[in-house]
Design goal:
single chain; about 25% helix; alpha+beta; 7-stranded antiparallel beta sheet; 4-stranded antiparallel beta sheet
């Protein structure tokens, strides 16, 4: 028996089908107030307690904050992940017997913050491979395109291309040069089937990690945009570490080419694994030397002429 709460409502067959065909769906009024309150509490705590990685990721633009693996230190987010309804929806979308949590990511753009999110595929960054993967993006503020709501290219998760990783702050340490360049979608938006929605707190965007998405900066003069993403994996996902993919700096038992295992990727459905849950109760911080090594490589990449050219090109694209 799972400890994850029963959702306010199950996804419909039509929603699951649209997720698989379009790569993204919006589920309105999905969250009950208690879960929404936990998420907002977690985001606000995360903003005051940025990790070393978060401070580095948020360094580029005043009013822009991002961090990852907040659930490892913030109990409100841990409880939402372990006991909330999210794993049930992930199971429906992925068609998986097992559901594991991958990681969380916080995004904050204050009103008037010129910090666009370039078009990208999430899976290009990640040290995993498989088809049974999904993300849930949840705002705790009203969201529109003006306040940096996400836009998606419908069906792009079914394209054969895998695009080079581009991050919101032009952080370029993990670019796989064998992947394709991202098309200049902003130069000819009518050539693509773009979709976006105005959102309210409690709404959830559920999408495949290969679906191309991005956003403009927050040009709204009064409204900030706080949101968090939860990432989920299923039966066919394997661990695929690489120098060109995000590192995992928390304890786990996964081996290259094998399934995700261990406390960094806790199983939520069908049941929790006691030793994974117990590990979360022990203080755990990424090894400082590993973080500094990754940041050092990133800084070297950013100082290269190629990185400077790419940054200039991206800024021009989004103006």
């Amino acid at each position: 028996m799972t400890f994850a709460a029963t959702p306010k409502r199950e996804l419909t067959a039509d929603e699951v089908q649209r997720f698989r065909e379009d790569g993204v769906i919006l589920v309105r009024e999905a969250l009950e107030p208690n879960w929404l309150e936990l998420i907002e509490e977690g985001i606000e705590q995360g903003r005051t307690e940025l990790s070393m990685i978060g401070k580095f990721m948020s360094r580029g633009t005043k009013g822009y904050e991002m961090d990852v693996f907040l659930w490892k230190r913030i109990d409100a987010l841990r409880d939402a992940i372990y006991y909330g309804p999210f794993a049930h929806w992930a199971q429906q979308l992925m068609g998986s017997k097992e559901v594991r949590f991958f990681y969380d990511q916080m995004f904050v753009k204050e009103a008037g913050t010129d910090a666009p999110t370039p078009w990208h595929q999430d899976l290009s960054f990640w040290p995993i491979r498989g088809e049974q993967i999904c993300s849930m993006w949840m705002p705790v503020d009203d969201v529109s395109r003006e306040s940096s709501g996400l836009m998606y290219v419908k069906g792009s998760h079914r394209w054969p291309q895998r695009f080079k990783a581009i991050s919101p702050d032009y952080f370029e340490p993990i670019i796989d040069e064998e992947m394709d360049d991202i098309p200049d979608i902003n130069a000819d938006p009518d050539a693509y089937d773009l979709v976006d929605w105005d959102m309210k707190p409690g709404d959830i965007l559920m999408f495949h990690p290969l679906t191309l998405h991005g956003s403009y900066g927050n040009s709204h003069r009064e409204r900030r945009r706080r949101a968090i993403a939860f990432r989920w994996t299923g039966d066919d996902v394997v661990y695929a570490p690489s120098p060109t993919r995000m590192g995992i700096n928390f304890q786990h038992e996964s081996t290259e080419g094998g399934p995700l295992r261990g406390a960094a990727f806790p199983r939520i459905i069908p049941t929790h694994i006691p030793r994974e849950r117990a590990r979360r109760m022990q203080p755990e911080r990424p090894a400082k030397k590993e973080i500094l090594r990754g940041i050092g490589k990133a800084l070297l990449a950013k100082l290269s002429p190629k990185a400077a050219t790419n940054k200039s090109k991206l800024k021009q694209t989004w103006n």
